[in-house]
Design brief:
mainly alpha, 6 helices
Length: 151
């Protein structure tokens, strides 16, 4: 049983990355464009350039999209994790210590999910792997062309 689970791990990680990225991007789209209930479920949007709401929404949309696609996953996840840590400690935590008391459950969960992806990478089904494979194939082909043939 363990062998089957181990072989499925990259796919489970890839699906995890896709779901987390999609949900995060939806938060950004809601805040920036008023879709899916809008900013904070009010149907509105955040004003362009306002700190920190607009910048957080841009990070959510772009970072979530990159993580969803598995493109630059580690860097996008690191920035996204940091933005959620900032949201938790600056916006939620001053109201109360525990996420259940201060409404910071989503910020805390996104922070830790993205931190995990920072260390694990994209898993299967990501563009990172596709580009890495293509790059290694090109490097191997170039190395073969440069290797002299013995007579």
């Amino acid at each position: 049983m363990s062998g089957r689970l181990d072989s499925a791990q990259p796919y489970a990680l890839g699906l995890f990355r896709i779901v987390v990225g999609l949900l995060f991007a939806c938060h950004g789209a809601a805040s920036l464009f008023g879709v899916l209930g809008g900013a904070s479920g009010t149907g509105g949007t955040v004003d362009a350039g306002t700190w920190p709401g607009w910048y957080a929404a841009v990070i959510q949309l772009v970072g979530g999209g990159l993580v969803l696609l598995g493109l630059g996953t580690r860097a996008a996840a690191l920035v996204s994790s940091g933005s959620m840590a900032y949201a938790y400690f600056k916006v939620h935590q001053p109201d109360a210590l525990w996420p259940m008391e201060n409404g910071g459950e989503a910020s805390a969960m996104f922070c830790w999910a993205f931190l995990l992806l920072t260390f694990t990478g994209s898993g299967a089904l990501g563009l990172d792997r596709l580009f890495a494979r293509r790059t290694s194939e090109q490097e191997e082909a170039a190395a073969e062309r440069q290797t002299p043939v013995a007579a």
